[in-house]
Amino acid sequence: MNQSINDLKSNIWKYYLCIALRNGVFFFAPIYVFFLSNKGLSILQIMNILAIYSITIVLFEIPSGAVADIIGRKKTYALGMLLMWSGAIAYLFVNTYLGFIFAEIIYAVGLALQSGANTALIYDTLKNLKQEKDFKKIQGKAHGIGLIMMAFASLFAGWIYSINVNFPVILSSICLFIGFFIAISFKEPNRYSEKIRLRETLSLTKESISFTLKHKQLLWLILFSSNFLAFGSATFWLFQKFFLDTGISIIYFGIIFSGATIIAAFSSILAHRIEKIMGRNLSFIMMFTFTFFALLFLSSGNVYLGISAIILTQFVLGYSNPIITNYINILTYSRNRATVLSVFSFSGNIIVAMLLPFIGWLTEIYSLPQAFLMSAGLFFAINVLLLISRALRLKKAHE
Length: 399
Hints:
The chain has one domain (7-189, 202-398): Growth Hormone, Chain: A (Up-down Bundle), CATH 1.20.1250. The protein has 15 helices and no strands. Helix content is 82%, strand content 0%.
């Protein structure tokens, strides 16, 4: 199918817009734990809901990437946005533990459908335009725009919630609904001459997993990055519990998140420049160090150290997205790129699914500071082993 250059170029600004609208959920996310706590749920139940969310993504992650490789990135992306909207809307009508689980599952299926499809769509768009070298820059800008939207939405989250408990959910739903209509207007980029048939789904998935497992550099990258991203994601939800325990008013929740997210936005937008100066090895060490100290700071129970922890975590999440996805894209092929990116997300969500109930259990048995301290120890041990294994592999390769 012949496509004009302008049609393909329009994918780039639409991608920026879709990322921003998807992050409209942060009208709700910064007060999520508080919202569910006021519905009568315990911290362990809330962590269980979030773990089920991660398990759902795990179950749909790789198949969704294969679907994106088969039926197209555009259709998969649009369907994902529609399901995310449906899950958000469900929060307006449920009030029970099981009801919130149901809503979270719908939302998670939608997010899983988007995973891999969005970055693969934009990478293949750039490849069609012979501009794939710009992926890291464009991905960083897109992620930065998303973080700016996250900061804007977070800024008003607590205040909007104080006016009406349902307003944050309504605003998030409106953003997702608009995002769906933008997603269906994407132009599907040409990838290869012969389309994959549905019966090849399992074969493509198996091929992509096998490719990942045999590619030592890619496998290490996925294990390392999904590990620290999982810990960063897990602690994000416990920030709210941390602030509740330290007596911070809910009105200030969004303001604190907003400030930290602005820092994350700049770290994402400037990621390609920072990485060029620091290089790959120092980037990995920085991601590990910042996340480790964030966990230690949170274990102190000190408000100011807790705010510093949020800044460190958000900086890492902002910086890592364009850098890691670019490394993965370089090591994969167009045929299975969306599926391999889904393997990456799959790995991170496996860790989150195990980590959240564990931390929730530690919080109820001991205390939140002790749960953070134990998490810091676990995180340190895992990542030191991974960094040592990489150093040994590189040493062996140079011998």
